[in-house]
Amino acid sequence: MTIHGKSQVTTWTGEAEPHRRSFAEIGNRATRLAGALREQLGVQQSEAVATLMWNNAEHVEAYFAIPSMGAVLHTLNLRLPPEQLVFIVNHAADRVVLVNGTLLPLLAPLLPHLPTVEHVVVSGIGDRSALDGLNVQVHEYEELLAGSSDSFDWPELDERQAAAMCYTSGTTGDPKGVVFSHRSVYLHSMQVNMAESMGLTDRDTTLVVVPQFHVNAWGLPHATFMTGINMLMPDRFLQPAPLAEMIEREKPTHAAAVPTIWQGLLAEVTANPRDLTSMKQVTIGGSACPPALMEAYDKLGVRVCHAWGMTETSPLGTMAHPPAGLSAEEEWPYRITQGRFPAGVEARLVGPNGDLLPWDGESAGELEVRGNWIASSYYGGAAGEPFRPEDKFSADGWLKTGDVGVISADGFLTLTDRAKDVIKSGGEWISSVDLENALMAHPEVAEAAVVAVPDDKWGERPLATVVLKEGATVNYTGLRDFLARTVAKWQLPERWTFIEAVPKTSVGKFDKKVIRKQYADGALDVTKLD
Ligand code: ADP
């Protein structure tokens, strides 16, 4: 904040000018925030302090104030269903919540179910009246900062102390808390900044679309402050049109988001062309990036780097930079993998019988990883002990990722599926991701999700749910014929349905459990081809 004091966090406001704040100002304000939290709100060491915020400068201030004072930054995923948010806040026993005014309509109805919350600190625009009559003390963020000193007696912290935590989205059972130590955040940030990862400098600007509540925005807020990388923050303007506008106007050199965001942006700039070429590299991860999407961005002059990770891995697990000295054509097969493991991430593949599999690009097994920024347990709650469910953690510290794939001899990971999404047909596995990628390569297909459905003869068979682009004329047989060009005949889906949109999870990934349920409930209009 001193050395890179002039670097900036730019927050989109939806008005003529975005809001700009230098790293030096953010440092000063983070100091004031820490003082206010301690002196005025009584925040203690190791206490979790929640944020319910968009990506913006104030959220960055919380990112530095809370961990540096010895408390634990607890980012809340604003897209979770209310009952999960209630579970999470109660589990962590959050006493203080920092919230953007625009999110009060979300927070206020939850507060009667959050007995531990005593203080709500509101920043930015938004009607405060939603909090009237509720049993909490309401503070204005700016007033707290104005009434606080610009020096703070920062404590000496143990590097293994908790700095932040984040809950997984709880696709099965209750959400699980993952705690990140100062040490793991620091080491992960150094890895993010390596040339073979995101490799950015203070001459760069990164557009942080991935939410700050989604695994610490993939480590970007920490990595940027380490090397002075400017940040462009979209706040609540996450729709394709404003994203396209902010890229054209602010010219970020890098951006990070899940494939869904990039699909939406692609449709937008196809309809209303914009110049995106300032972006030298965009990082796409969180779910498999369809090769067709990567190709489309290549054509727009934007290079995609595919990455894999999980909440439990902080999240950087792999990035797909091809080896040096290859032609564009030779690079392609490397670029569409999930990528290579960096130093700091140890990996192994485990077969169905628990045997370790070779890295030969063919043997498929469950990926297990361990390392400095990889969790080895889940948070037990304010009152509980950390816990290690056997299906997630092995006794010797390996994280069982639940992802199935192969690893090449030179360490490139290709995921074929999530263990729970693999289609088991007549004793053979069909990769739902392969079928989706093949479908999304069709020029008239906007999105496609493939799930396993029960089948009397084969046990399970694929069901293809497809979203067509506007004006498309292709029918199910046409799509099956298209697939048959690249997919083995026995893998071709018989069951097809056109849908309006693929259901998405709280962080924008395909929500296949919703599709499976819709199918089970008979809510989909499915055609079965012969
Ligand atoms: P959740 O489990 O709630 O989706 P995470 O964000 O932690 O939350 O998701 C991690 C999972 O996302 C991984 O285990 C993997 O299945 C999937 N994933 C992440 N990146 C990729 C990728 N590049 N390709 C395929 N799957 C991915």
Automatic annotation (TrEMBL):
Its EC number is 6.2.1.-. Residues 435-509 form the AMP-binding enzyme C-terminal domain. InterPro entries: AMP-bd_C, AMP-bd_C_sf, AMP-binding_CS, AMP-dep_synth/lig_dom, ANL_N_sf, ATP-dep_AMP-bd_enzyme. GO terms for molecular function: ligase activity. Residues 17-379 form the AMP-dependent synthetase/ligase domain. This is Fatty-acyl-CoA synthase. PROSITE patterns: AMP_BINDING. The keyword Cell cycle does not apply. Keywords: Ligase. Gene3D superfamilies: 3.30.300.30, N-terminal domain of ligase-like.
